[in-house]
Amino acid sequence: QLGYTCGPAGDGCGGTIQCGTCTAPDTCGGGGKPGVCGRTAGGNGNNTCMVGTTTITGTVYAPTNAALGYGNPDPIYNATVYVPTGTPAAFPAGVTCDRCTALGTDVAAAVTTSGADGKFVLQNAPCGTNIPLVVQTGHWRRRVTIPAVTCCQANDLPADLTRLPRNKTEGDIPLIAVVTGSADPIECVLPKIGIDASEFTLPSGTGRVRFYTANGANLGRNTPDASVLWGDANELAKYDVIIADCEGSQVTKSATWQKNVIDWTNKGGRLFASHYSYTWLYNVTPFSTTAAWSVNQPQLPDLNALIDQSFPKGLAFATWLKNVGASQTLGRIPVQQVRNDATAVNNPPSQRWMYADPTVKANAPLEFTFNTPVGAAAAQQCGRVLFSDFHVNTGGSGGGRFPASCNGAAPMTPQEKALEFLLFDLSSCVQPDSMPPSTCVPLTCAGLKYNCGPAGDGCGGLLQCGTCPAGQTCGASSPNVCGSTTCVPKTCAQLGATCGAVGDGCGNIIQCGSCP
């Protein structure tokens, strides 16, 4: 739990524990991290930094290729950056439940996350030659090798080493299905984000972006109809993310199709629905509970949208938009082709991200998300849905053959940059939007030596450590340990807890407050 692999250490209760020995040429603390085996660039193990520490710094970027005319790449918020202890396991094929969990010391020798400016600092990093580094958000993942990391000082990395992959030969990209529509060709934004042209294929191909057509652009006459995707649960299950373009009118979806999509998101699927794709949401339970729907109202004029900054990601979103030049005033962004299909976002289960300037139209949410299954406890939620009530892409034709349908290369507009941020968020791990990003490593019942009752995991989560046999009481002699005497419950102060739900040592849960 201390992250130590060698040497003696205090156990936090006045005792001493022995954490093992190192194999030469590593020495204990030799990589600059106390209690961890390591070595210097020369391999002599003598890397105890007397002044400062070894850090790796840089900025995580989208894979945008400026040479193709799409503008400079934007920084990526809340990406995980780490030095792996081995080769990261391959992502399983098909839809999966990806909840946010911290990386333990068995996976990462050093780990951090990027800020709203994309910048990161890896503290107490290993040093030497050929140091591996992983940059990841959800199923976007790139593993690179740093030629040299100098001990006991800051090591700043070049931008090309810390960007996300452009194609599957460079790393992992989520498998994305695009259902093209006539009114909002979101597929035209994906090359701007940085996905190489080779990755756009038919479903029978090997690209990471695969096309189905509703009434929009195609990849040739063999492009399958949208019904091939929506009508087959097994076809849906192949994909991590599905983008449903606006089809230009309210096209009713069958109850079977809607159920297939709901079941897919419940398993971990991520759905982006543009404007008239509210037909997946507004009239089917439980998705209909996510907003106060009032569909197909008269469209709104071009306006300034406001960013909801009342939650951690919303504040980061507003800051990020200003950092990348999409917003001139913090918390405001110009939006074109605005629509109006809901009067409020229901929170819970949804989180509003953008809404119309109230002086133009009150009670008009423009973008919101919710996690699935709707109404389930956060620990049981796997998928995510993003709804956008404006046409994100205003430059593509919405018809013809891709990529000519996108009318040439151009940098992203402000509202396309907003989509970029939210698409990376959509495809990242699932957690409540009210929680700030964290690299906290949760404790376990075994590690705490608990065998009964609830206990805090140290990261805001709750563990259930079991029940006691007949005749014994949880916490009778020691908190969260079965015994035969009367249990005296602990207080938050006695447990040293200032936040979250924790066990009182006697089988009960107490609430210890929230963090500022």
Description of the molecule:
The protein is an alpha+beta fold and 516 residues long. 11% of the residues lie in helices and 26% in strands. It contains eight helices and 29 strands. It has a ten-stranded mixed β-sheet with strand order 13-14-12-15-16-23-22-21-18-19, sandwiched between helices. A hairpin with a 2-residue loop joins strand 26 (473-478) and strand 27 (481-483). The longest helix has 13 residues, at 414-426. The two termini are 26 Å apart. The model is unreliable at 40-47 (pLDDT under 50).
Q: What is the topology?
A:
Elements: E1 8-10, E2 16-18, E3 27-28, E4 37-38, E5 55-59, E6 80-84, E7 108-113, E8 119-122, E9 128-137, E10 140-149, E11 154-156, E12 176-180, H1 190-193, E13 200-201, E14 209-213, H2 226-230, H3 233-236, E15 241-244, H4 255-266, E16 270-274, E17 291-293, E18 303-307, H5 312-323, E19 332-335, E20 342-345, E21 350-356, E22 365-372, E23 383-388, H6 414-426, H7 445-448, E24 454-456, E25 462-464, E26 473-478, E27 481-483, H8 492-495, E28 501-503, E29 509-511
Short description:
The protein is α+β, with helices and mostly antiparallel strands and 516 residues long. The chain is built from eight helices and 29 strands. Strand 3 and strand 4 form a beta hairpin.
Keywords:
29 strands, alpha+beta, 516 residues, 11% helix, 8 helices
Counting DSSP E segments of at least 2 residues, the number of strands comes to 29
Give the class from helix and strand content and strand pairing.
alpha+beta
Instruction: Please count the helical segments.
Output: 8
Model regions low in confidence, pLDDT < 50 over at least 5 residues:
40-47
Gap from first CA to last CA: 26 Å
- How many strands, which pairing sense, and closed or not: the largest β-sheet? 10 strands, mixed
- Indicate the mean pLDDT: 90
Radius of gyration: 25 Å
